[in-house]
């Protein structure tokens, strides 16, 4: 479990959440930096072709999220070991967040992060925009943990299950629209 047992613990839950969130943002930023470096390989491809590929990829991802297309996503099936958090909660939370923030250590079930990564790779944007997108990815992942921490509701899981399809579809649509606007 990410959070400490509560008020009796030597480390407060809010502190663990903050360190975990910092790790997520740092991990997302590192991944974006790697994507930005690799995006130079796409530079020789004409901009119109790159834009078309990004929009096509986003459309396929949106169709996958809506259940119209069945397409497996690449994944790393290994989970981050529990021992990371057991012995050193602060540094373990930072490491756990960092590895999740990179998006390559754990399974990402939504298509949007893949569209974002490939869109950034093909769009060949400047370093600040790409790094900001990576940091935003990490911050977005931290929202799940933060909302869980702030909600503390016994029926939270049922509420999330009802809203998850809407959130997933709206996220896919927003990524599609954002990429289309970026490329216009």
From TrEMBL:
Protein name per the record: Uncharacterized protein
UniProt keyword annotations, A-Z: Membrane, Transmembrane, Transmembrane helix
Highest taxon of the lineage: Bacteria
Record-annotated membrane-spanning stretches: 114-137, 166-183
